[in-house]
UniProtKB/TrEMBL annotation:
Gene3D superfamilies: 3.40.630.30. The lineage of its organism: Bacteria, Bacillati, Actinomycetota, Actinomycetes, Kitasatosporales. InterPro entries: Acyl_CoA_acyltransferase, Bact_Acetyltransf, GNAT_dom. This is N-acetyltransferase domain-containing protein. The keyword Acyltransferase applies. Residues 10-170 form the N-acetyltransferase domain. GO terms for molecular function: acyltransferase activity, transferring groups other than amino-acyl groups.
Length: 177
């Protein structure tokens, strides 16, 4: 049975230290699901990977320079996003650093709800432009972002052996959430 796609059943809020284990677990699971398709015998969700992402998210949640949002459905954390402020040639800009959804909730609107909350926060903070890096081979994520108006950065074309693609979003012209 697929989880509900009812947007009202999803709550996006600021993440807290209490959400750390759930965020690290869903991040590990999402990465494992993505990479397992390309490398079926690699243990992307091994305990060492889980610890790696737990430590990384712990540092993010302890800092005050990287806001973290989480999406919860029926009290369970099923998605997370974090972003960093940056300067873009003198204009206030932001980088979407992470956006992950538990694979059991892919396609249910969790990612869109997190993205919408990020857009609201960015516009409120006065950012003019957003950027993100996406894995070149992550066609699911690339299609998701393209559908939300993100476009390849014309100033940062990938090298022939690139693993990532930089996408940008002009917050002044992006559709309002």
């Amino acid at each position: 049975m697929r989880p509900t796609t009812d947007a009202a059943a999803c709550q996006v809020r600021d993440a807290t230290r209490a959400d750390l284990a759930a965020i690290a677990a869903l991040h590990t699971g999402a990465r494992a699901a993505l990479h397992r398709a390309r490398f079926p015998d690699t243990p992307f969700d091994a305990p060492a990977e889980q610890l790696r992402w737990h430590d990384a998210w712990s540092r993010v949640l302890e800092g005050d320079d990287t806001p973290v949002l989480c999406a919860a459905r029926h009290g369970a954390v099923v998605g997370a996003a974090s972003y960093r402020r940056r300067d873009d040639d003198g204009r206030p800009a932001v980088t979407l650093h992470q956006l992950h959804v538990d694979p059991g909730h892919w396609g249910t609107g969790i990612g869109r709800a997190l993205h919408t909350s990020c857009l609201r926060a960015w516009r409120t903070a006065g950012y003019s432009r957003a950027a993100l890096d996406v894995l070149w081979h992550n066609h699911r994520a690339r299609a998701f972002y393209a559908g939300l108006g993100w476009r390849p950065d014309p100033d940062r074309r990938p090298a022939p052996d690139a693993t990532h693609l930089t996408l940008t979003l002009d917050l002044a012209t992006a559709p309002a959430p």
